C-alpha cells in the first residue's frame, strides 16, 4: 500500500528521458497516477507513442537521442510548450551490454558513456531554464556499478560513476532553487537491463540469495523512491544517491548462512 496521496503531483509537470520502457516507464506511470502531466522520450518514436498511451492521463511521447543536445533540447521545448515549466526531470536513458574491456572497441566504450553520462548532462543542462524553480527536482538513474566495480562492465561502471559525481556538482551549483539527486536501482525484474546482465533463472536465483530482501526489485519499488525524492518530504535532500536495491550494496546476505555453518 503506497503512503502517497493520489493528488500529490496534481498540477505538476514531469519530463522523463528514457521513459519509454522498463524502470523509467514505471516511474512515468506512477507520476501520472499521482496527477502529474508527463512527457517521455526515447530514440524510437513509435515506442514513445505507445508508452504515452500506456501512461495515459494525456501523456506525451517524443523522440530524441540524448547524445544529441540540440534534439534533446528540442524535445524538452516541445514538452514545455504543451505542459509548461517542469517540476520534475528524470534522466534515465542508458545502454549496456556485457563485454570484456579487451574485446571492447573504443566506439563501444564511448557509446555507453555518451548515452549514460553525456546524455544525463545534456538532459539536465537542456532543461535548466525550463524548470519551475524554486522547488524543481531532478533525478538521475544511476546503478551500483558506480561504486562497486563489475567485470565486463567497464563502460557502464565508468559512466554511472560519472553520473553520481555530476549529481553532486549540480546539487551544489543549482541549489537552493533546484534539488538534484540520483536513484541507484538494484536488479529490477522484467527489465531490458536484467535480460542483458542475468538472462537465465539460475543466475537470478543465485543473485537473489545474496540480497538482504531476498528478491529482485520491481519498477514500482523504484517509482516510489522517485515519488519521495520529488515530493515536499524530500525538500532538504539534495546531492544524494538513494539506493533502491534491497540491500544489494550493503553486502552478501548469503554469507550469513555460511557463517552459521562454520559456527
Ligand atoms: C561488444 C558491442 C556490443 C556487445 C554493441 N557493441 N553491442 N560490443 N559487445 N554486445 C558495440 C558495436 O559493435 C559498436 O562498436 C558500438 O558498440 C556501438 O554499437 P551500435 O549498435 O552502433 O550502437 P547504438 O545503435 O547506438 O546502440 C547502443 C547500444 C544498444 C548500447 C549498443 O545496446 C542499445 O541501444 N541499448 C539500449 C537499451 C539498453 O541497453 N538497455 C539496458 C540498460 S540497463 P564498433 O566498434 O563495432 O562500431 C543498464 C543496467 C545497469 O544500464 C546496471 C544493472 C545492474
Ligand atoms: P530500458 O528498458 O532499456 O530503458 C532504456 C530507455 O532509454 C528506453 O526508453 C530507451 O528507449 C531509452 N534510450 C536508450 N538509449 C537512448 C538514447 N540514446 N537516447 C534516448 N533514449 C534512449 O532499461 P531498464 O533496464 O529499464 O533501465 C532503465 C534505467 O535504470 C537505466 O538508466 C539503467 O542503467 C538503470 N538501471 C537498471 C537496472 C535494471 O535492473 N534494469 C539496474 C540498475 C540501474 P529507445 O530504445 O527507444 O531509445
Average pLDDT for all residues: 96
Strand percentage: 5-15%
DSSP summary: helix tally? 9
How are strands sequenced across the largest beta sheet? 3-2-1-4-5-6-7
Contiguous low-pLDDT stretches (5 residues minimum) are: none
CATH class label: Alpha Beta
Helix-strand category: alpha/beta
**Shape, per Cα inertia axes:** globular
- CATH topology description: Rossmann fold
Mind telling me the CATH superfamily name? NAD(P)-binding Rossmann-like Domain
Distance between the termini: 40 Å
In angstroms, what is the radius of gyration? 18 Å
CATH architecture: 3-Layer(aba) Sandwich
Can you list the ligands bound to this structure? hexanoyl-coenzyme A, NADP nicotinamide-adenine-dinucleotide phosphate
Largest sheet: 7 strands, parallel
Amino acid at each position: 500500500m503506497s503512503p502517497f496521496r493520489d493528488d500529490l503531483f496534481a498540477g505538476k509537470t514531469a519530463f522523463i528521458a528514457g521513459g519509454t520502457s522498463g524502470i523509467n516507464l514505471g516511474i512515468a506511470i506512477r507520476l501520472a497516477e499521482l496527477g502529474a502531466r508527463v512527457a517521455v522520450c526515447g530514440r524510437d518514436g513509435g515506442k514513445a507513442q505507445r508508452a504515452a498511451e500506456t501512461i495515459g492521463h494525456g501523456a506525451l511521447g517524443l523522440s530524441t537521442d540524448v547524445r544529441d543536445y540540440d534534439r534533446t533540447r528540442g524535445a524538452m521545448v516541445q514538452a514545455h510548450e504543451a505542459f509548461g515549466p517542469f517540476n520534475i526531470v528524470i534522466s534515465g536513458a542508458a545502454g549496456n551490454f556485457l563485454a570484456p574491456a579487451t574485446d571492447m572497441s573504443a566506439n563501444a566504450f564511448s557509446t555507453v558513456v555518451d548515452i549514460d553520462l553525456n546524455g544525463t548532462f545534456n538532459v539536465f543542462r537542456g532543461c535548466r531554464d525550463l524548470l519551475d524553480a524554486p522547488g524543481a527536482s531532478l533525478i538521475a538513474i544511476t546503478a551500483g556499478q558506480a561504486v562497486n566495480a563489475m567485470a565486463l562492465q567497464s563502460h557502464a561502471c565508468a559512466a554511472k560513476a560519472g553520473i553520481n559525481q555530476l549529481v553532486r556538482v549540480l546539487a551544489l551549483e543549482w541549489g537552493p532553487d533546484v534539488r538534484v539527486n540520483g536513484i541507484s536501482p538494484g536488479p529490477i525484474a522484467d527489465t531490458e537491463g536484467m535480460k542483458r546482465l542475468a538472462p537465465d533463472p539460475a543466475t537470478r536465483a543465485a543473485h537473489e540469495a545474496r540480497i538482504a530482501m531476498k528478491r529482485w526489485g520491481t519498477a514500482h519499488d523504484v517509482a516510489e523512491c522517485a515519488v519521495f525524492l520529488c515530493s515536499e518530504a524530500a525538500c532538504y535532500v539534495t546531492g544524494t544517491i538513494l539506493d533502491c536495491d534491497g540491500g544489494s550494496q550493503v553486502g552478501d546476505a548469503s554469507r550469513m548462512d555460511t557463517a552459521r555453518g562454520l559456527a
